[in-house]
Design goal:
Layout (H helix, E strand, L loop, with lengths): L7 H4 L17 H4 L51 E3 L5 E3 L3 E8 L4 E8 L16 H13 L9 E4 L5 E5 L8 E3 L4 H4 L9 E3 L4 E7 L2 E5 L16 E5 L8 H9 L9 E6 L7 E7 L15 H17 L2 E2 L8 E4 L4 E4 L6 E2 L21 H14 L36 H16 L23 H5 L5 E3 H6 L28 H21 L20 E4 L4 H6 L21 E3 L5 E6 L8 E5 L23 H8 L7
Parallel strand pairs: 4-5, 8-12, 19-22
Antiparallel strand pairs: 1-3, 2-3, 3-4, 5-6, 7-18, 9-10, 10-11, 11-13, 12-13, 14-17, 15-16, 20-21, 21-22
Helix pairs in contact: 6-7, 6-8, 7-8
Amino acid sequence: MHPVFPNLSKLLASRSTGCLPHLLLHGLRNFAFGLPSHTFGSTISLLISSLPVHCFPPTSTSSSQKPIQDSVMEERRHPLFVRFFENQHFQVANGPGYHVVSLYDSDTRRTVLVEVPNEWGWEVPDVEDPEFWVPLQKATAALAEHLDNLPHGTSRVKVDQARSVVSFDTDAERDDTFGTEYPLLTDYQLPPPISSRTVLRSELTEIRRICRGVDLVSYPPSLSPPQMGQDRNCFVFKYQPEDAVIMWKEIQMLARLPPHPNLVLLDRLVLDEAAMTQVVGFTMRYIPSKTLEAHRPPFKLKWLKQLMQIVDDLNLKHGIIHQDILDRNLIIDPDTDSIMLMDFNVAYRVGVGVTKRRGSAEEAEWAGRDDVKGVLVFLYEYITRDPALAAGFYDLSEVDERPLIDPAKWVKHPSVELDEVAEFYFELMAWVRRRRAAGGGGQLTHYTEAPEPLEWPSVKELEKQGRFTRYRVAARRSAELPYLSWRRPPSSKLDPAHRLLATGRYAGEEEEAAQKAMAKAIAVSRDNPLRKLPPIGRIVSSDDLPPIIIPEEPNHDQEEMGASCNVAGASTTKAGEKLEAGTTKAKSGAKVKVKAAATGPGPRVLRARPKGKRERDRDGDGQAGVVATPNSKAAKKRKRSGYSAKD
């Protein structure tokens, strides 16, 4: 019997809890820092410091796979390495009794709503008050304790003051997990050969979970030549299950930068396993070493020179500012004994300034985070161990670099192994002065002034076409519309006898899932002959599928997610029914007028407007969308204004 939830043993088979993996491994701060907190949801680092710390255990591998003994996957005991993220920027008051907190579980890649007691009633404390975050702390602690022992489909949990589970909900219709549409491979307009370097998500085998949206994976034998060796068949897989737009810029940049001995660039584009046309992520080379945050070897002068050259090449040759030169993004390649720079998720092209909004694929300049300053602050902290900078746990934009110019401050920490500090200081300062000199060629005003600027298509048009539309997975599932599932079993309950794929399914389940998907598509096609089945591997346009008629009813979800995602209760026309120009038959038999409400890949979603119902001017023709009978008041009014219902 479960010690906290006595009835749990009646609902679940008794299983060992194993390791509660509520802290992620090394690497999460590449996301937690450098991006606005709302990009991935607010981290709850300061709220779980009292929780027991466990890392993700290694993902089980088959007997044919050689375990990866990688030092970078070490357990981290800093509270930023968390499993759960708050999805919302505010506490949702559920009356005076309970608060509802929405948490994203990066281990199983799903959202869980947690109801916790509300002690304040309607008088919610200010966000600056520590008491405001108490429900979030309770919700996180409750999930860390119970989630892996609840059914895999649990979408809502209610706990009491003692964090004991009162009830839980497994109704798939109430699942609050979001998905996203992904851009097509052709949308990126990448040059060869990188445009042909692709791998399916279902071909990647999960080795280990690093942090939110980052896994260590292996390629299939067809993409890993024998000379590579099993111990070298390791790659970093980056993805975004809920917001694909934020990967657009990083993929474009890493794919277009030329090969560089000190940069970790894109290796392959990862495509969805269904249509094989959508880019759902990318892979990079894996370096089996610790970052300079996790391990600090005696720093070599040649590494400093390499780092300064990296920055010069990015800034002056390509017009790119990395904006995140920190120890967590620097690693020493053991094969070449060279320093490597990685993670371009906040990089931008000089002169391309936009507002910093949630989920934006556009580039933004962050004040006080230029790369020259990044190198200066990094080396100063590496040598002096200045507690004010706390081994990389600092915000670069808040550091004043002027005091660091003083040579008197460069006092080597006793634990640091280094040759003469003066040699490093003078080498660095000569470079800083050269880059800061006005008119000395150390600054660009626009990336197009660079000798080899990088260009890529704008993302704005794709956003308008619905390429990056977010949707509730439950809505797509209930309407039998295609969606990409990312859910996977918790790392504490993996089957060691089977390979887990990047899809979240075991190798044996993947083929079965594909067969079920095809059978469902065939069944839908049989019920509605107008719906064509696009051949595998072909780019699907909106004209390939028939419209889906959605009755015009008030729906708050529709306003939030867009008509293309609001498919609950959708109904299609009967097979063989004749469609008049601009009209169709609704299920009730009433004559309605329809118009497209979404563009982009997938079926066209049409909005059905019942007879005589008024609408806003959605098509920009200056007229409200009114469908009226010839003798109705609306028809007479339009006739007087020179507009008839027939128009």
